[in-house]
Design a protein that fits this description.
By secondary structure, this protein is α+β, with helices and mostly antiparallel strands. It has helices spanning 3-11, 14-20, 33-43, 90-105, 120-129, 133-144, 174-182, 188-192, and strands at 51-57, 63-66, 74-80, 109-111, 114-116, 148-151, 156-159. It binds zinc ion (ZN). Zinc ion binds next to helix 4. This is SprT family zinc-dependent metalloprotease.
Length: 195
C-alpha cells in the first residue's frame, strides 16, 4: 500500500477499515516466494537484521513493499492475489521480489519537483539486476490485461475490481512471451501492447 493510501485508511471509520483490510491468502505459487526474497536480499546485500515479511492479499497494488516499520527493523512485501496461481512464471516472481527489495536500496526522492518512488536510477538498477524485466512487464500486461492499470500518480500497477474473473483463463506461458520478444523489431513494449 502506498503512503497516501495508508494515510487515507488511517482516516477511515473502523467499520470501513475492517472491510478495506484484505485477508492474506495461502500461496499457490509455483515456488516459495520467501526463497526468492532471500536470493534478492543476498544479491542486493541487504542487512540480515532486517525482517522481511511476505503476504498475498487481494489489495489494490499488483505488488508493493511497506516501509512504515523500517525503523523497527521490519518491512512487508505484498503480492496481489491475481498472481497467486501456479502458472505465474518464476522469472516474473523473481523480478517482483527484486523490484520490491530494490526500494530498500534506492529510496524515493524528488525529481523535477515531484517525489518519485522510482527515480531514474531505480530503472537502471532494476534492468541491471533483472535483465529480463522488460519481458516480465510484458508478461504481466498480457496476463492481467484490462484487470490492471498503470497508476502514474502513485507510480504503480493497480488491480481493478472484478479481477477474479481472470481465474477463468490460463495465464500465458513465459516461453510464449519470450518468443514474441525475440521477433525482429519487436521489443518488450510491443509485446506488452498485446501484439
Ligand atoms: Zn516499485
Amino acid at each position: 500500500m502506498t503512503d497516501r493510501r495508508m494515510a487515507q485508511a488511517a482516516r477511515l471509520p473502523r467499520r470501513v477499515q475492517r472491510r478495506a483490510t484484505p485477508h492474506p491468502e495461502l500461496s499457490f505459487l509455483c515456488c516459495r516466494f520467501e526463497a526468492l526474497l532471500a536470493e534478492a536480499r543476498v544479491a542486493l546485500d541487504i542487512s540480515p537484521a532486517l525482517r522481511i515479511h511476505f503476504t498475498i492479499v487481494p489489495g489494490d497494488s499488483l505488488a508493493c513493499i511497506t516501509l512504515d516499520k523500517l525503523a523497527e527493523g521490519e518491512c512487508t512485501v505484498l503480492l496481489h492475489a491475481i498472481l497467486n496461481r501456479p502458472d505465474t512464471p518464476r522469472p516474473v516472481l523473481e523480478h517482483i521480489a527484486m523490484h520490491e527489495l530494490l526500494h530498500l536500496k534506492i529510496p524515493s526522492r524528488e525529481v523535477d519537483g515531484k517525489r518519485r518512488s522510482h527515480p531514474p536510477e531505480f530503472g537502471v538498477a532494476e534492468r541491471d539486476a533483472v535483465p529480463w524485466c522488460g519481458l516480465s512487464f510484458a508478461w504481466i500486461y498480457l496476463a492481467c490485461g484490462h484487470h490492471i492499470e498503470i497508476c502514474r500518480e502513485e507510480e504503480g500497477i493497480r488491480v481493478k475490481r472484478g479481477w477474479k474473473r481472470r481465474y477463468e483463463q490460463p495465464f500465458p506461458e513465459w516461453d510464449h512471451v519470450c518468443r514474441l520478444g525475440e521477433r525482429p523489431g519487436v521489443d518488450a513494449a510491443t509485446v506488452a501492447s498485446g501484439l
